Amino acid sequence: MSWYGLYPPQAIFSKRRFNKVLLDPPNFNPGSWCGAGKMWIDEENREYWLTSRPREMREMKRGYAVEIYRSKDGENYGLVTWITKEELSKMTENQILSIENQQLLKDPLTGRYHLYLSLNVSRENLVVEGKAFTESRWETFLLTSEDPSGPWEPEGFVIRGSEEYDSGESRDATIDIVDGRYFCLYKARRAGTSIVKTALAVGSDGKNWVKLGVPTVDGKSQPDFFLLSGSIIPGSTGLIFIGTKTLDVIRGNALTKHFVAYSIDLGRLNLETIFEKVWTPLSRFEHAEYPIHTYAQALFDKIRGDRWLIWVEAVDPNHTRELGWSTEVDRLILYTSEIGALKGNKHSR
Question: How far is CA 62 from CA 53, 81, 160, 292, in A?
């Protein structure tokens, strides 16, 4: 066997092994979750950072904080700090109803840490095609800091519902920096509809974004519900996305059973399939039919150098009453994919 370029996503998937539970939800009552975050590896200080949002179904407990954890081995994490939605309401000067996806990065120019948060902003009156209705909106807010432990300073909403296709939701981003340039795949929903696409944006500083639009997939229009969560990684032929693809919504929840990799063609605004596989659970902490609730990430362990780390927000089959927004229980679990057996091949990571 011989191959070149990026370590093959197919090998990352096929060699995955369940490692452990990373985080438990606040409790195991129906509608209690954790996850929806990002893992970031600090090579200089040999530390692993992980973000998460705790959530309960009780009134006012939807996505009530963003939590930031630190680890020395990538497997055992301790809570360092957190930011509540009440604090974010003051920072944004809006009533924040819920916090969802988070992305943690370090800006290469300033050295400051960027923390992107998907925020559900207070309800407002909208008119679409002559129809009036009330709907809360989701947009992406940025905080920055000199250190992941804080304090965090507000920079404002940076990915807003400024286009028709993302007027209802512009959030749940996958953001990575490649060749000094910010790339973002994010959830885009038109206000007043349930049609969800994945849109693409680029930027030079992580604050000012150019929206490129909604890419095709293998040259065809995206399905009416198409949501990606994962990592954007440089490959020898261009940008590669590795993560999950979500197509299904069950009782209000976007649920996942596909692990995918796409090459990202910026010129043609197209995602080209590299591979797609059904995620078969390898632990007792994952629902048999829909093991993942949207969010996941695969990244190379740059500190150890011999494995990939894959975390997923897993739908727990033991505590979940039934699949759905108010009835399931999610926890964060870790898979590892060792690369030692393939070291003899010519590849980059």
Answer: 9, 19, 21, 19
Pick left, alpha or beta for residue 294 (phi over 0 → left; psi -120 to 50 → alpha; otherwise beta).
left
**Residue 254 CB partners (closer than 8 Å, separation 6+):** 196, 225, 227, 246, 248, 293, 294
Give 10-residue mean pLDDT values along the chain (349 residues). 88 98 97 98 97 90 97 98 97 95 98 98 67 80 97 98 96 98 97 95 98 98 98 97 98 97 98 98 98 98 97 97 95 95 44
* Helix (H) or strand (E) run with residue 12 in it: helix 9-14
Closest CA to 148 of 112, 183, 184, 117: 112
Residue 63: name the closest of 80, 86, 81, 79 by CA.
Answer: 86
Burial of 185 per CB tally in 10 Å (0-12, 13-18, 19+): buried
- Give me the pLDDT at residue 58, please: 80
Q: Look up tokens 């490129």; give the residue.
A: 212
Distance CA 311, CA 333 (A): 6
Nearest to 145 by CA among 118, 121, 113: 113
Structure confidence at residue 1 (pLDDT): 54
pLDDT of residue 93: 94
Q: Does domain 9-342 have CATH number 1.10.10.10?
A: no
3-state secondary structure of 223: coil
* DSSP for 65-101, written as a single string: EEEEEEESSSS--EEEEEEEHHHHHHHHTS-EEEEEE
